[in-house]
Description:
The complex is a heterodimer.
Chain A: H1 3-12, H2 20-37, H3 41-66, H4 75-81, H5 85-98
Chain B: H1 9-25, H2 31-48, H3 55-73, H4 76-85, H5 99-108, H6 114-124, H7 130-137, H8 141-159
Amino acid sequence: MNENELERLLHKLTPADPGAALDARIAHVLSQTSATTRLPLADRFLLAAISSGLIAACLIVFLVASDPTHTAPPPAQQAARLPPPVEQQRLFAQLLRDADLQP
Amino acid sequence: MPQPDPDDWQHWLARYKAGLFLLARQHLANTHEAEDAVQEGFVKFWLARKTARDPAAYLFACVRTAAIDLRRSRTARHRREQSVSSANPSLFQPSQEHDESRQQIEAALPHLAPEQREVLVLKIWSDLTFAQIAATLHISQNTAASRYRYALEHLQNLLAPKVHHE
């Protein structure tokens, strides 16, 4: 048998069909998919409103967080509020005396 | 054969279903899993078909990928159970006229290299061109054509002493 004869023989064979159940399954999946991708107009407006609201909320949070009046004071200011080292030592010694722990 | 209606999925399925199923069965011995692969690949194709340069090649590529992914996702144990428990029906429709040849070809096909078998399935039973086969398998047209020739040559050798002219 030469190549052409073999090709002709192969063409005579018909692949087995998976059956109609597969068509029904695909129809079901495609109908479900199109139902979720084609939302009614009212639902689209609702989704757009929710998205806009979320974006606005995020923007407000960002603006509040970046406002200097709502942020912690810089380290230099924090340090300024603490007593100077000599004063700290004096206060600590006073505490020890008050607690009667000084030898 | 004419191209199916681009907006009617049933035309596409009717046109290529048997070829897609046969391709999926080259990767999955179990017919139910092969049907799952055809379903998954076809749905993926249909949702993205408008982005494809060659929709038919894209359809076959989608089903092939789905079949390969499904085969990989099965554990070795599950595959073993499936191969033992499930029947393995014929790849081709029975035909009184060519039934002896059908049985001999079915017996010979597993002896071909998987990449040669794939090209044979796409060329003979899915009517794809070498350009489409190349796009489906991500190979060059020359590679597709040479795999096809090797497949025929190998099949000739396997069938030489068996098939009678019908």
